[in-house]
Amino acid sequence: MNAQFLPKAEYPQPLFGMFLVISSEFRGFHLRFRDIARGGIRIVKSRNREAYSINARSLFDENYNLANTQQRKNKDIPEGGSKGVILLDDQHQDKAKVAFEKYIDSILDLLLPPTSPGIKDPIVDLHGEPEILFMGPDENTADLVDWATEHARKRGAPWWKSFFTGKSPKLGGIPHDAYGMTTLSVREFVLGIQRKLNLNPSSLKKMQTGGPDGDLGSNEILLSNEKYTSIVDGSGVLVDPNGIDHDELTRLAKKREMISAFDASKLSPKGYRVLIDEMNVKLPTGEVVLNGMTFRNTFHLRGGHLCDLFVPCGGRPEAIDLSTVSKIIVDGKSTIPYIVEGANLFITQDAKLRLEKAGCILFKDASANKGGVTSSSLEVLASLSFDDKSFIENMCVRGDGTPPPFYINYVMEVQEVIKRNAALEFEAIWREHQRTGKPRSTISDELSWAITKLDEELQSTDLWNNDGLRRSVLRDALPVLLLDRVGLDTIIERVSINHSSKPLSYLPLPPRERQLVTGGGCFYN
Where does the record place the Glutamate/phenylalanine/leucine/valine/L-tryptophan dehydrogenase C-terminal domain (predicted)? Predict the structure, then answer.
């Protein structure tokens, strides 16, 4: 659908394209801010009818805000931002796989020529241009992306290799969870705070939402060395003021298990665990928790006294907003000194500004958790640069589980790019805050829009026709391993063809220049 009907007062950033997909099991959208855009697909589940009604009312706004955040996160990569959200019907909470398959198949119907048997008339296409979407895993879809990749190949999509990222290594994917891609960027901001303020990580008390069962949460546990005092996940709340046993947390993170599987004998006398289905639980302090679910849902608003550092790695959007932020501000001062927002939209922008005004050092999601999109973009770049035969030889893990040497080295190069980009952005935001006094959350947005605007301005020039400049920029921007293996001329040819003669839209901003910058349709299934 053409998204121009959206009121600008409520949706100030115009969408490029919008897909609406409706089925008996779900309803869903796919929204994008640029012709060539990237973003994950998430499935939203509802615990009961009331939760479903709330999720249904906020479905489009949540999708829009997630895509908007993705647009700002994607400043380091050539694609714009997009997001897909699938809301399961309240009577079909067990149909996630069916809903995902119908959603993907419906979108493929709109992206591919109508060659399916039984279709008498072509689909009305008011856009009139070839379209390609880049998707990736998100909440409740990580185990479904392999199916989407294989299905796109079966349906004859020429871009099947790049349709979904985060797929298994046997299909040439670089799974974010296996290599901690998103966590690597979050960690750079945590390490940056420690470095700037000379903080000892082993004595830094830490609270985390999103537990050892999740992608971001598990890798944050595995890569960090702070003193965990509280963790909140889908099963409940785990607290120990003396420090949660890190070996036991590591065990859970490696097995991807919730804190409900934590060995409670490893808690100190002051430690406790409250699960969501428990009631009337007496804490070591003497307080009685009447309802475990309510306690879990609101713990992040009361756990500030237990922590110095808060890293949200999971949780629903707007968990802290203007109406609740006062609960972690006492006498005008934030009870949490440092926050690195790993989870998307966990804190609303106005709440972030209140926290910063109250003295909290806060780095928002669009800056902190962009590692995954960088990994996805470079994964796509490799898939577009290789032909099918070379892609299988260099990027697909063999049947015995042995990865090709190129794959191993390419993953390592991607990890270094993620850490470098995150470190550059941390330094830029820290420096500009000291220079101007502006809130870091505001600087993060200004930096994102400045880079995005520069990208748009470059695309409207004829710089691409300057062969010398083009080749110089590409040599600086593209991964060295890919240049050595494929060659610059071949990459330019293949990437340009795959992007409908819009090659500049797929060229990442080189590190040197980055430092200086401080349509669709409607388908019913």
Answer: 173-437
